[in-house]
Amino acid sequence: MRLFSWLKAKHLTDIKPKCRICYCSTTTFPAVSQHKIPSQNIHITRKELSKLLHQRPPKSQLKQIHAQILTQALSSTAAFVNSLIHCYLHIMEFTSARLLFFHYPLPSPPILIWNLIIRTYCKLQNSSESFSLFRLLLNLDPLIRVHPDEYTFTFIVTSCAHQRSIVHGKIVHGLVVKNGLESNLYVGNSLINMYAVFKITDDAYKVFDKMTERDVFSWTSLVCGYANNGEMDQACEIFYKMPQRNDVSWAVIISGFAGNGRYMEVLVCLNEMFCAVEDKVRPNEAVLVCALSACANLGALEQGNWIHAYIMRNDILCSSNISTALIDMYAKCGRIDCARLIFNRIPRPDVHNFTSMISGLSYHGLGEDSLTVFNMMLDKKVNPNEVTIIGVLNACSHSGLVEEGSSIFYNMETLWGLKPQIEHYGCYVDLLGRAGYLEKALEVVKSMQIKPDIVIWRALLSACRIHRNIFLGNSIIDFIKQLNSAGPSGSEVLLSNLYASLGNWEKVSEVRKAMGQRKTQSDIGCSWIEVNGVVHEFRVADKLHPQILEVLDKLNELWIVLS
After folding, report:
1. How many domains does the chain have?
2. Considering the domain boundaries, does residue 177 fall inside one?
3. Under a CB-based contact definition with an 8 Å cutoff, are residues 367 and 395 in contact?
4. Is 416 part of any domain?
5. What is the pTM assigned to this prediction?
6. Interatomic CA distance for residues 431 and 428, integer angstroms
7. Residue 142 has what pLDDT?
8. In a domain, 101, yes or no
């Protein structure tokens, strides 16, 4: 016989509970009163009901148990109400949980129940409900003697971080100090994380400094805050002071280097991670993805091959993220054949795998192959995202596929619900410009629904240089100067190159002189080369390179040979 076949109330409207939980049972829990009751009348003891509730039953069974509690007039017992609230929150039945909470048999639920509901809303990132309950808690009659504890503040601080509300965060921090909980481990960790999200690293460090007890999460949160704010030197300083590091700590510092474009340090840090015997950690998925991304940006094929071999040797699951990173790495390191091999071995490619393959083929100028993969993606009912469209448009641009690119650009919103963003306009303008449709490209820019940024104008200016259209180039420079009165160096360098391509050295000198008067200079060039698995970095006019003398000697040898 099924255990719950008989747990139903016959006439809930006849029940008159002595508490305020279900003042109108048919309104509050209508589903319970709709069941037919078996002929036998079986009684369940309080102990059995309590045991059933602790098993976290599904919704249909929970309603039956609740009905049995009502029939036995146990709804005025706080222990049963607490268990019911737990169960309803567990199955995300918020309406029933809130009704039980607001019609509690005592003047107020205990702080444990307050925390439970606030935490649930916090997990769902429903900050408004969290704040609403927190305000109710603060405004309770002092005689009730229910006050927020360290867990309450931990959850509400996390809600402030989710909402990205600095004002609320500061107010709650003040209440934390008032209640003497600033040095508490859990509250301190949540405050550090909150200020890290706000990118207020000074305040995060102040909280960290006042904590009497710290764990690995405290240190890692602070490192993450500095890394996300671009303060990698401070992040490293804190990281190397950590008494103990786990895989998340290493992932945070490595992803910080990757996110700030310091790819050499990513590989150095990965090597340190393997050598850190005391930490007893191995790279997780986040570390491997960042390392492969660094190899892709450095063109470090040997390093990338080693990481791929490590993944295979240790039977690490080739997840979608790792597969995507491998495709990207091999494509950018010149091994598009290996990228294809990785892609073809994926049983069910997702949008990220397809996007990486499309972008890789585009990177190699294989526009038609990119379109083939794109069509395969559509055939498999995988909808593209914004990045996919950027990759396809770039492929069309590099291969001169104007008709195909135009069709994708103008249909992206109709077919896939993707509204063109500034990046899509930039790709399409570049496509038209490269193909020589300068006037059409200018029309697209002028008809944009969003204000064109400097990247759009530079793409058009670059097309003017390719097709030697000085008149339009000068007009575009005027538009760019309106966007940036300081005179953006990249644009003026392009204009200078445009004049140089036409042999107009007088104009080249004019532009360069104007740049010099404003102390404008182009970005310092940087390049990498991998030799025997070691990546070397070089910058323009870099006299601080550790092997600068050997480099200069070799350049002199080459100069003599060429002379």
Report:
1. 2
2. no
3. yes
4. no
5. 0.74
6. 5
7. 82
8. no
Name the amino acid, one letter, at 504.
N
Tell me how crowded residue 492 is: count the other CB atoms within 10 A of its CB. 21
Contact assessment for residue 308 and residue 340, using Cβ atoms and an 8 Å cutoff: no
Enumerate residue ranges in the chain where pLDDT < 70. 1-43, 477-504, 506-508, 511, 513-555, 563
**Cβ-Cβ contacts under 8 Å for 387 (sequence gap 6 or more):** 355, 359
Find residue 535's DSSP bridge partners. 530
User: What's the CA gap between 552 and 426, in Å, rounded?
Assistant: 40
**CA nearest neighbour of 400 among 340, 463, 445:** 463
Among residues 76, 62, 98, which one has the least CA distance to residue 16?
Answer: 76
Task: Quote the pLDDT of residue 66.
Answer: 82
Position 410 scores a pLDDT of 94
Looking at the domain assignment, is residue 505 inside a domain? Answer: yes
Confirm if 417 and 435 have CB atoms less than 8 A apart. Answer: no
Q: Do 464 and 514 share a structural domain?
A: yes
Do residues 207 and 195 lie in contact, with contact meaning Cβ atoms separated by under 8 Å?
yes
* CB of 402 closer than 8 Å to CB of 432: yes
**Using only C-alpha atoms, what is the Rg of the chain?**
32
Structure tokens at 240: 């190397």
Q: What is the model's pLDDT at position 563?
A: 62
Range of the domain at 460: 441-518
Looking at residue 97, its pLDDT comes to 87
- Each residue of 208-261: pLDDT tens digit? 999 999 999 999 999 999 999 999 999 999 999 999 999 999 999 999 999 999
The one-letter amino acid code at 330 reads Y
Question: Cα–Cα–Cα angle for 498, 500, 504, nearest 5°?
Answer: 105
Contacts of 201 (CB under 8 A, 6+ apart): 195, 222, 225, 226, 229, 231, 234
State whether 514 and 446 are in the same domain.
yes
Tell whether 511 and 532 lie within a shared domain: no
Polymer length of the chain: 563
User: Do the beta carbons of residue 55 and residue 91 sit within 8 Å?
Assistant: no
Q: What is the pLDDT of residue 239?
A: 96
